[in-house]
Every structure is written in C-alpha cells, then in structure tokens.
Amino acid sequence: MIFDYVYSVVSRFIFSPLSYIISFVIVAILAIAVTALIPIFIGWVDRKYSARIQSRYGPVYVGPFGLLQNFADLTKMLGKRFISTNVDWLSFNFTPIAIATASFAMLLIVPLGSPSLEFISIPYSLLFVYTLLAISPLLLLVAGWGENNKYSLIGGFRSAAQIISYELALIIVISSVALLSGGYNITAIVQNQTSVWYIAYLPVTLVIFIIAGLAIIEREPFDVPEASQELQAGWEVEYSGIRYGLFLVGDYVRVTVIAMLVTYLFLGGWLGPFLPGIIWFIIKTAVVLMIILTPRWILGRPRIDQLIKFGWNWLLPLAVINLILVEVFVVL
Amino acid sequence: MEKEGIIRLNIGPVHPAMHGVLKLILDIKADTVVKAQTEIGFLHRASEKIAEARYFSNYYPIMDKLDYVSALNMEILYASAVEKAAGIEIPPRVVYLRTIMAEIQRIMSHLVFIGSFGEDIGNVTGFIWTLRERELLMDIVEKISGGRLAPMYICNGGMFYDFPEGIENEILEKLSKIEEKVKNEYAAMFTKNQIFISRTKGIGIATKDMIKKYGITGPIARASGIKRDLRKISPYLAYDKVDFEVPVENDGDTYSRFMIRIREILESIKIIRQCIKDLPKGIYKAPVPWILRIPKKETFVKQESPRGEMGVFLVTDGGDKPYRLKLRSPTFFAIRSLEELLVNVHVADVFVIVASIDPVMGEVDR
C-alpha cells in the first residue's frame, strides 16, 4: 500500500519505468528506517521487563530510561573484530544476513497497525509470512555446519529437528484460521472479524499458535538449540560482533511478528470501539507481546526429546483435530 | 574420534555451565553419553602443604578458600580440630554463636545450589532470586564479621568479635522472609513447575550401593535414602540441644537431591531460631594465646558441611605449626561417581546431574 502511494506520487513527476525504480528505493529507505526501530524498541522492552521480574534495574544509563542502550550495543557490535578461524566462509557469512533479511521482510508484508500501512500488499500475505518463518531451520543447519564446531553442529541439528516438528502444527493452525475467514490475506482476515473476534471461535487454536510460534522462533522455553548452559550457545557459538547482532535483531523482529499475527488472526487487529485503529492495535500487540515474553523468565528449558515428543504427540494431533472441527463448523 | 559416530566433547575447565574448573570428557553418540571421564586438579593450591608453614591461628584464611561457598563451616571445622588437639574448652556462648553462623552459612550455600541448579536447567530468574535472598544473609554476615564471602570470623577458642547489638532480631526477621520465599516462590518456580519436574525426576539415579561404594556423604547420600547426618549421629557444637529433623528422600534422583536442600534450609531456619532463643550470655572468646604449641598427637575431626562430611586430620609434633594437615572433602568423593552417573544419559542431562552433586572445586582440588 505504501509502495502504491509512493509510486503514484513519484510517477506524476518522472517518466514511468524510472519512477518505478525510484519509488522502490524510497520505500526501501523508509522500510529500513521504520522496521529497524521496531526490534530495537522491543529489545529495550524485553530487557526492562526481564529486569523487573528479576529485581534488577535493567538499562538506565544510555538515554532516558536506557532507551538508547540497544543502539549503543549495536554500535559496539559493529566495531568488533572477527575472531573465528577455520569457518566455512560462505555459509558463515551468508546465514546472519539471510536470517535478518527474512525477518525484516516479514515486517514489509504484515500491515503495521492499519490496512493502509503495509509496505507491499500481496494477496497471500499470511502464507508468505509463514514461509519466511519456516525458512530458518535450513539456514540454522547451514550456520551450525559452517562454523566448524561440535557445539554448533549439535545446536544446528537440534534446531532443525525442533523447527521441523513445530512448523507443521503452525501451518495447520494458520490454515484453520484461513479456512474460517476464506483467504490468506491478513487484511481480509481482520475485516472478517468485525462482528466477532476469532478468539471466540478458536481459543485452542490461539494456544497452539502461540506455543508453535514460540518454538519456531526459538524463544525460551524453546531455546533448546541455543541452550547457553549445555551447548554454550548452540549454533551461534562462533558468531560475534555484528553477525551475532543480526541474529539478535532478527530474533526480536520475529517475536514482534508473532505478537502481531496473534493480534491480527485472533484479536481483531485494529478493530475496536472509540479509539483509532492503530491505538487499539498497539494496545493489543503490547499485551500479547508481554504474554509471549514472560515464559522466558519464569520457565526452565525442556530437553530436546521431550520437546519433540510434545510437538508430535500433542500439538500436531490437537492442531489436526482443531482443523477438522473448524472445517465442520464452516461447512455447517 | 576413534569409533564411527562417536563425538568426543571436551567440556570445561572453562565452560559457562561448569561449576568451577571441573573438566568433563564425554564420548557421545547421537545425543547419548557413552563414556564419561572427569578431570580435576585445575584449582590445586597445595592448601595442605601451606598449613605446615603457618601457625595454628594463621591458617583460617586458607580454610575460607577451600569451600568458598560455605566458608564459615570450614573455619568452624578447623577451629574445632585445633581446640580438640590443644584441649581448649570453648565458652557456652561461643558454642551457640558458632551454631548460628554455621547454619546461616548452610542456608547461604544451599541457596547458591538452588539457584545454580535452576540456572543449569535454563531458569536464569531463579538464580537471581536465590542470590537476592542470599544477599539478606550476606548482609548479616557482613555486619557480624566484616567480611562477606571469606569472613575470617572464627579464631582459636572463640570468635574475633561478639554479635553486635540487636542483630538477633534482624536475623529472625530476615529468616522469616527467606522461609516465606522458599515455601512459596521456590515452590512455584521449581518444585511444582512441570518443566522442572520433567527435567529432574528419574535423572541421574544414585543407588545406595553406589553411595557406599564411592563414600559419598551429605545431601546426596540422604537423597538416596541413607539417613546419616553428623549433626544427629555424633553431635558437635549445640546440635544435641536443639530439635531438628534430618530430611531423607528415597528416590536418589536429581529431584530428590534438590528437595533435600530445600528441606534442609527450612530445618536450618528452625535451628537458628532455637539457638537465638537459648543464646547464653558470657564471653565470646576463651583466653587462648595467638601462638599455640600442641603436644605430639593425632586428631581427627569431622563435621557436616553443606556438601557432606568434611574432615580434618591434624598431626602435631609439639611445635607451633602442624606437622601434617589432611583434609577430607565430600565433593571429591562425589565427583568420582560422575563417571558412573553420566553414562547413558542425554547431553542436556549431564549438566543437571553435575549441578545436583553441587561441586565446589576449591574444596575438591584443595
């Protein structure tokens, strides 16, 4: 939508083929500026929130309430030296960029709080977001392999095993939402919830979605591949500096996207009385985000076999049964 | 890599999950440990040899650094050995003061165990919470002795200072705070948490035969159903005058080792309350010269440290320094059992089992 708007403005002044490229560049710069702020802010929220749970202060020195701490950290990461040896150059350097790109691309497709506020509008946006989420096991396996380290190799395999067992459940719950609304377009799904939010129809789906979503983005308690206690840091053990920073930023983007998707798919997105839509959206996303961020600080980490068993034995059958019930509901 | 499909993993001595500088050499096959070896000695400081060059009164700082998580227990143990060898009678107030300090230190040590055990399962918040509670007691130790981790509070024949005015009420106040946290918050965080239970129940089972074979004592033995606590079976200090229970669990897995510590904290709180109630008045130090000369004899004293039975074997030859000092440390024996405990477990469980025996390498390597 934003792209269409920019294109219409630019094409008034400049000849057509060139205007397409120029508006593309403008949108890219705009997208970087907007989307880069989101993970940095969410990172600050996470740090402050965890600090409050743990009786600490969290960042306080850089900027008001430590808001600029993450900028400082990223700047520091940019200046770090490359220290790894014997790594596979291509896979080692390609993976952080690919993960960060895939994460940021999701923010371009998801509307940012109002139907007109999306950078690129495509009809199957939900499916595309899922694809970008599900691409990570391959990349993490490549990263774990390319680092030439036993810990990272074990971490990479764990990561692949975990994500493969949970992404099936995720696509099934996404499909049951799509079945109810009749399409994979996020804007259309939200507009179908005008009378009743989907949380009323699909409470179980919401729970499955949050669990599977957390497992896919490897958020604690599903951080088995990273397992800082046993595998030091799993597949990211050799990464440092800005390469590690890209993983970190990508992680926060994906947390944000999961929270946004929960809001869009189940909580009616920007719909709500009295207040403007974007305020409603921010309130809902903030609440969901807090709920998603909490388990990391109060739960331990299950073992990899327990995790995979849970995924295949409980989550997947539940998702399938849920899908069948939704289908029956829709047909009736 | 000698065999097909076996990866050798060298964990430690510097590893984020290792307690101190323990090194594990694990042969793993598809996420299961086939063979485990331990390597110790990275923190060897010749503590026993140093004793031979020091006056009896000057060895306390080294004792502090043996089991640095429970330094006061070590000091009290050494003081008891020297006093037994020299035939010094300690005043009744000192007996009670030492009991209180030993139990405060035991609670602090168990809190560190609970936190680091939870941290090894991935629960960082638990670690910070237990350290927060430990800080309450750390403040008390600081007010009493002036030191925190290595207080250097005990001396031959008593203690360096008496308790400051009104510290008893403060101790009681903070103990009730800790009791409330242990009973409620830790239950929610650990003992009733499903993920915690699934990670610890049935993992790393140490049978009674194993305990006897390796000579393991303390909470690990009590978690396997062996009811043996030196405070009960051969009481020292004021332990025969107070009423407390020895918690015993029968499963012998990591969960029962965790539960033993939780229950021991509550028992220690009980002991301290009774001691403060009957705290006699009097002198806090027997008149003992700084330089002692102990006639030729052999003395062995053992006491229940938070990790098990810690013993001091003191050989004197009439001089002002020990002829030989031998330390018997509990985790040294427990670490030997890791080679058997760690076989056929998942890699993720290795760290839970290592954490559950609560090794402090300062005491293992001496």
Topology:
The complex is a heterodimer of chains A (332) and B (366).
Chain A: H1 2-13, H2 16-53, H3 69-78, H4 89-109, H5 125-134, H6 136-146, H7 150-181, H8 186-191, H9 198-201, H10 203-216, H11 241-266, H12 277-293, H13 295-298, H14 304-331
Helix pairs in contact in A: 1-2, 2-11, 3-11, 4-5, 4-6, 4-11, 5-7, 6-7, 7-10, 7-14, 10-11, 10-14, 11-12
Chain B: E1 7-11, E2 23-29, E3 32-39, H1 47-51, H2 60-64, H3 71-86, H4 92-121, H5 124-145, E4 154-155, E5 158-159, H6 167-191, H7 194-200, H8 208-214, H9 219-223, H10 230-233, H11 254-277, E6 297-305, E7 308-316, E8 324-328, H12 330-336, H13 338-341, H14 347-356, H15 361-365
Antiparallel strand pairs in B: 1-2, 2-3, 4-5, 6-7, 7-8
Taking the sheet with the most strands of chain B, its summary is: 3 strands, antiparallel
Number of separate helices of chain B? 15
Order of helices and strands of chain A: HHHHHHHHHHHHHH
Q: Into which percentage range does the β-strand content of chain A fall?
A: under 5%
Class computed from helices, strands and strand pairing of chain B: alpha+beta
The percent of residues in helical segments of chain A reads: over 70%
Range of strand content of chain B: 5-15%
Topology as H/E string of chain B? EEEHHHHHEEHHHHHHEEEHHHH
Low-confidence stretches of chain A: none
Overall shape of chain B: globular
Q: What distance separates the N and C termini of chain B?
A: 33 Å
Termini gap of chain A: 36 Å
Which geometry of chain A do the CA atoms define? globular
Residues in helix, % of chain B:
40-55%
| Assembly form of the protein | heterodimer
Strand order in space, largest sheet of chain B: 1-2-3
Overall description:
The complex is a heterodimer of chains A (332) and B (366). Chain A is an all-alpha fold and 332 residues long. Chain A has helices at residues 2-13, 16-53, 69-78, 89-109, 125-134, 136-146, 150-181, 186-191, 198-201, 203-216, 241-266, 277-293, 295-298, 304-331. In chain A, helix 4 (89-109) packs antiparallel against helix 6 (136-146), helix 4 (89-109) packs parallel to helix 11 and helix 7 (150-181) runs parallel beside helix 14 (304-331). In chain A, 47% of the residues are buried. The mean pLDDT of chain A is 81. By secondary structure, chain B is α+β, with helices and mostly antiparallel strands. In chain B, 48% of the residues lie in helices and 13% in strands. Chain B has 15 helices and eight strands. Chain B has helices spanning 47-51, 60-64, 71-86, 92-121, 124-145, 167-191, 194-200, 208-214, 219-223, 230-233, 254-277, 330-336, 338-341, 347-356, 361-365; strands at residues 7-11, 23-29, 32-39, 154-155, 158-159, 297-305, 308-316, 324-328. In chain B, the strands form three sheets. In chain B, strands 1-2-3 form a three-stranded antiparallel beta sheet. In chain B, strand 2 and strand 3 (32-39) form a beta hairpin. Chain B is globular, with a radius of gyration of 21 Å. Chain B starts with 6 loop residues before the first strand and ends with a helix. At the A-B interface, helix 7 and helix 14 of A face helix 4, helix 5, helix 7 and helix 14 of B.
